[in-house]
Design a protein that fits this description.
By secondary structure, the protein is an alpha/beta fold. The protein contains eleven helices and seven strands. Strands 1, 2, 3, 4, 5, 6 and 7 form a seven-stranded parallel sheet that branches. β4, α5 and β5 form a beta-alpha-beta unit. α2 packs parallel to α8. Bound molecules: zinc ion (ZN). Zinc ion binds next to β1.
Length: 364
């Protein structure tokens, strides 16, 4: 039976750019508004590539990005940490002068240029209209996995959002994504909130299990959403040419790498090995503008990039924290449960409050 997203207007061949006349990109790598070419990412990327090329000559290339899906070796045997990319929500609006179809295409192009597959965690609410259907199809057609991020993005650690409401939310979005070829039974909690007490966490976990789902855990959490919000605010205030986007990029790269290295260190102490991480980013403007540089940065610092569905095969994701320690990133929960980090673990693990002062002082 034909699905709503099978309409001819939205159809595009696999592995090619969607050519939807309304939302499709004109030029995926060049931001749309007049004059925005003043912000050019490519020269930096090429410079970073040189930095990467020399170590590869000296030490050889262990990158999995040539064809990571064919890797069969255990992810536990590699020498360094691995990172994969996951994106939450899925927005369908134009952002600060960047057309929806174009900034979405920028994210997809960055991933494609690195031969990387991501998992997109879908909120259902805004995916029922034409733009929402176009977005889902654009991700599915490019071979990325589509997972469940609830329908209305509720906080399930709030008392009013009950376990039975959780089940309705899970099923609504499941019905939206399950017909797509690359849907997977992973669920990511909005705000990473699994429930405010042990019995509710247990109920929700039972619902997930009986619906064939597992938790789409985050191991590296960060506040990309906050940098994104500040960047958009600045562009709206002064225009894209005067927004000093490269200074936001530098902060973003430094922030994400700082959090990645923090969670990797914590993880290594507990697991005594490098794991395959799942980094939480959002489907937003910072991902569109900076993802290529972020991927380069990870590689420059010795991380291996892997497909997100491959990362979820790491055995660390079988270590479900006790219900009393649910929420935040998986690594944070494990550390909390170990009882060894009570003096150093902050709560909430990540929040705008930690970045606001730094951005204020930099004038960002
Ligand atoms: Zn979300």
């Amino acid at each position: 039976m034909p699905q709503p997203w099978d309409r001819a207007a939205l159809r595009s061949p696999r592995s090619t750019s969607p050519k939807n006349p309304t939302f499709g990109p004109r030029n995926p790598l060049v931001p749309n508004p007049a004059g925005t070419k003043a912000y050019i990412l490519k020269p930096m990327t090429r410079k970073l590539q040189l930095f990467i090329f020399i170590p590869i000559l000296l030490f050889g290339c262990k990158s999995s990005t040539s064809n990571p899906r064919e890797q069969t070796a255990s992810t536990e045997t590699v020498a360094g940490p691995m990172v994969s990319f996951t994106f939450d929500d899925g927005a369908t609006s134009d952002i600060a002068g960047f057309k929806f179809g174009e900034w979405n295409e920028m994210i997809l192009s960055h991933l494609e240029n690195e031969d990387l597959k991501a998992v997109f965690f879908v909120t259902g609410k805004n995916k029922l209209d034409e733009k929402g259907q176009f977005l889902l199809k654009s991700w599915d057609d490019r071979g990325h996995s589509l997972a469940n991020h609830s329908f209305a993005h509720l906080n399930f650690s709030s008392e009013k959002n009950t376990a039975s409401l959780f089940e309705k939310e899970l099923k609504k979005t499941d019905s939206i994504i399950s017909g797509l070829g690359n849907s997977v039974k992973l669920f990511r909690f909005p705000y990473l909130k699994e429930g405010q007490n042990k019995s509710k966490v247990d109920s929700i976990r039972n619902i997930l299990r009986s619906n064939g789902y597992t938790n789409g855990y985050v191991t590296i959490d960060a506040s990309d959403w906050f940098v994104n919000a500040r960047l958009i605010k600045r562009i709206k205030e002064v225009g894209v040419e005067k927004a000093e986007i490269e200074r936001f990029r530098d902060f973003y790269l430094q922030h994400i790498m700082e959090r990645a290295n923090y969670y990797e260190k914590l993880s290594y102490e507990m697991n005594e090995r490098h794991i395959a991480h799942t980094l939480l980013l959002h489907h937003n403007l910072t991902s569109a503008l900076f993802l290529d540089d972020l991927i380069e940065k990870f590689k420059e610092e010795g991380w291996e990039t892997v497909h997100a569905d491959q990362a979820y095969r790491d055995k660390v994701f079988e270590k479900i924290p006790d219900a009393g320690f649910a929420g935040e990133s998986l690594i944070w929960s494990m550390a909390k449960q170990s009882g060894k980090y009570d003096g150093s673990l902050r709560y909430p693990a990540e929040d705008s409050r930690y970045e606001k002062g730094k951005m204020d002082s930099l004038g960002l």
